[in-house]
């Protein structure tokens, strides 16, 4: 679970594998966004199943490894693969990796995901900087007893997606000559893709992208005071926006397209922190 002692056990295990200082920046890579991990040099690679208390991800495209290495000469941790609420783990599991990063001393967390677009102007292969989120999944890793050593019972989410970091993402995209959209990410629990009626509801709520992850990590990170920013890689138009069915293969294919564009942006971004 993600109690104080368990996350420190996990963090101590990771530290025991490192011969260098623990990075201050970590990134979580969504489905098919492995390009960034491939750009990490000189990496120590730790499979999740080796880390105490970590569950094993169950989705194709989520290989489940922690990479600790250098990106553009900056020490980073890359979380390749994540646990999803739809996998049926207790809610707390969706926050475990994030809290382990906190126990390691990470201060800045970059969350990426594959998402469906609700923006006409952002089709498959596009990217969207996450400016805010809507938790529509009904899951929250922080439900239960609070441990004040980790964070307060009640905490602010009014600037959960750090404005200064978000600005740097826009600047890094511009520096790379890449077009990037911005908008609100809404989390649906899945595992099904949404209905057109649900997407229409999300659109009216102001969402720009929909996916099945990221919000638990943002909540856990903000609770313990980490700074958060993030990018959705658009793999498809959300249900009902264009004719045809949605499938995971398309998600993987266009995740690759957007992931290739995202790699230089994140390589630039980490040098600005
Ligand atoms: N809905 C939810 N999650 C997703 C989608 C989608 O359309 N595309 C990629 N992940």
How would you describe this protein?
This protein has 273 residues and is α/β, with parallel strands linked by helices. The chain has one domain: Rossmann fold, CATH 3.40.50. It has helices at residues 4-16, 35-38, 93-104, 163-175, 196-205, 215-223, 248-269; strands spanning 25-29, 41-47, 65-71, 74-80, 108-117, 127-135, 181-187, 207-211, 227-237. The protein has a 5-stranded mixed barrel with strand order 5-8-7-6-9, surrounded by 4 helices. The protein starts with a helix and ends with a helix.
The portion of residues assigned to helices is: 25-40%
CATH architectural group? 3-Layer(aba) Sandwich
Structural class: alpha/beta
User: What is the class in the CATH system?
Assistant: Alpha Beta
| CATH topology type | Rossmann fold
Instruction: List low-confidence stretches.
Output: none
Number of domains: 1
Mean pLDDT, all residues = 94
Sheet bearing the most strands, described?
Answer: 5 strands, mixed, barrel
| CATH homologous superfamily placement | Nucleoside phosphorylase domain
* Count of DSSP-assigned helices: 7
Major sheet: arrangement of strands: 5-8-7-6-9
Order of helices and strands: HEHEEEHEEHEHEHEH
Structure summary, number of beta strands: 9
Radius of gyration: 17 Å
Shape: globular
């Amino acid at each position: 679970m993600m109690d104080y002692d368990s996350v420190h056990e996990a963090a101590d295990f990771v530290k025991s594998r490192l011969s260098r200082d623990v990075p201050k920046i970590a990134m979580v890579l969504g489905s098919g966004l492995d390009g960034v991990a491939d750009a990490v040099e000189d990496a120590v690679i730790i499979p999740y199943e080796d880390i105490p208390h970590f569950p094993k991800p169950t989705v194709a495209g989520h290989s489940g490894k922690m990479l600790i290495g250098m990106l553009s000469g900056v020490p980073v941790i890359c979380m390749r693969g994540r646990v999803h609420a739809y996998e049926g783990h207790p809610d707390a599991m969706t926050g475990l990796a994030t809290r382990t990063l906190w126990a390691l001393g990470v201060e800045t967390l970059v969350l990426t995901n594959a998402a469906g677009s609700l923006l006409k102007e952002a089709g498959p292969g596009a990217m969207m900087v996450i400016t805010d989120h809507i938790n529509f999944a009904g899951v929250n890793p922080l439900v239960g007893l609070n441990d004040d050593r980790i964070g307060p019972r009640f905490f602010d989410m009014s600037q959960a997606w750090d404005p200064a970091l978000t600005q740097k993402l826009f600047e890094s995209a511009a520096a790379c000559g890449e077009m990037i959209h911005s908008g609100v990410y809404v989390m649906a629990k899945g595992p099904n893709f949404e209905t057109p009626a649900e997407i229409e509801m999300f659109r009216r709520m102001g969402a720009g992208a929909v996916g099945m992850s990221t919000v638990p990590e943002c909540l856990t990170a903000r609770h313990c005071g980490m700074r958060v920013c993030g990018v959705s890689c658009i793999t498809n138009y959300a249900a009902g926006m264009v004719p045809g069915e949605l499938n995971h293969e398309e998600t993987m294919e266009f995740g690759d397209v957007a992931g290739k564009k995202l790699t230089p942006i994140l390589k630039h971004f980490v040098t600005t922190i």
